[in-house]
Write a structure and sequence with these properties.
- The structure is a single chain.
- The chain has 584 residues and is an alpha+beta fold.
- The chain contains 17 helices and 25 strands.
- The chain has a six-stranded antiparallel beta barrel with strand order 1-2-3-6-5-4.
- The two termini are 21 Å apart.
Length: 584
Amino acid sequence: MNRMKKDSGTVKKIAVLTLLSVTVITACSTGSTIENELDTLSDFSLDRIDRLLETGDNLRALPLIFSRDRSGDGSEGRYDQAIDGLNAEWNAARSDGDWRKSLVYLRSFRILGEEKNTDGITETDLFLEGVYEFLDAESTGAAAALIQSELNIDDIDPEIRTDLAARFEESGHRTVVAELLGVEQPGSPGMGSLVDGTITVWVNRGIKLVGNVGVPDRGIGSGFFIDPKGYLLTNYHVIESEVDPSYQGYSRLYVKVDDASGERIPAKVIGWDRNLDLALLKTEMDVPYVFSFSTEDTPDLGARVNAIGSPGGLTRTLTAGTVSAYARSIQPMVGSLQIDVPINPGNSGGPLLNEAGEVIGVIFAGVQSYEGINFAIPGPYVKRLTPSLYVGGQIDLPWLGLSAWDAVGRIEVTYVVPGSPAADAGLRPGDLIKTIDGFHFLSIRAVQEYFLSRAPATLTSVVWDRGGEITEGIAALGVRPEIPLKAALTRDAREHLLTPLFGFTVERISGSGLHQNYRIVSVLPGSVADEAGFTAGDSFSLRKWIHDEEYDVVAIQLVLKGRKAGFLESAIQIASYLDVNTVF
């Protein structure tokens, strides 16, 4: 797949993958050998449970207790000990007024059937606490996003709705005010106001050498205000050098209002998320216009949309187009909105607007080789992450710790990371996920979207089908690694990663040392292996495993004896990004 014109690094990454994906092997490289298979995916011992309970990690202990009880090993009263610990943590969170921690415990109690411990407090109560906390901190953009992403307006007391509407009206959040008052949504304020609410994001990285000549190294993107206190959204990749600990060079962040004044105003990064490519900035300036998010989850196919940004550094540029497609698998998780709005380098981070002037997405990329194929982060995802961006730092997204495959409306587990929440719950490759928290999901993307509404540590129930036997387990969501399968490389045998990366399962038939021989057991439709012509029953010798750490690409070199080729030997190399979008 051709990747997008986010930045020059992405283009180089594509070139690396293309080079590694050639069928005929013409060069060699040092690489890792296949390791021995791990005996277990998780430690279910009583010693581990006791260590977790002693350190107050009750939420992580409970899945292990459930797994032991399900298998008949028993946990000798440790469930009651964990519940007592959770009650103490819940009371402490309520005493501290910590609505986020309280939400984790509330949802976890519900999964356990222990709602009696929550004193009748509801999720609506806790989210309203969060709204007022943000409002008191003058973070109205976070408060507005929290209302739109997490609250049902009808569940809010009418007096509270009136009070909130008055406070949001002062900060320019027109759409939220209309929602709270139950009146017709406002029309577009006019393109002049919308353009005024966008800025150019400049990252000055000093001087770089091109040949023997020093040239300015500048990153240019766009952003838009969501708060009268100077908070604005942009893309993570625009400001990456400001927060990436591996970057050791010079980096200074500014925003620029227009070309006429030429004034550069210092800004700072508040929060960011690499997975969805979002960042929240703060600058000290008078905000001319505050954008509102649309109430619609998905715009109509073919709907007219507008984008505002700074292509090539040309500030305040308006372009128009239509919505082309939904849920494109472009980012490491969830889906992207495809649009034909003209997009160029410098547009990244700008708002995608409907005809009412409301934000329905954030521009982040375009396919460089094709005109009119561009992408935006859908508005619902942006709204859901915005409150966490205000908290500051890198967002911790949750995960179960597995890779799966969409199998005709079913979600089949293809890989479980050893020691992950999924492993602690008892999940194994080949399991078919039936429900998560009682909900039936038809796709991996739908599960990823659901988990955006959950915080790490929250208990989650999972029901799966293993060979016709239905099993239920409990998982305590973990923190998603920056590149999940890169983390798995340090925990597991390489042969186990062949499925999530390339889409085929194997059994070892012979070999030792540098050369291992395998038989292909199954091939996932549409996977890298399927497109390379692999079929069940083929055998191969794995000669080399190449991990390009700079671009997070893995390639394998093998000698294949394919059935379709009469079992004649052929040298093949296939490659895959580590950042596959089948992980949750």
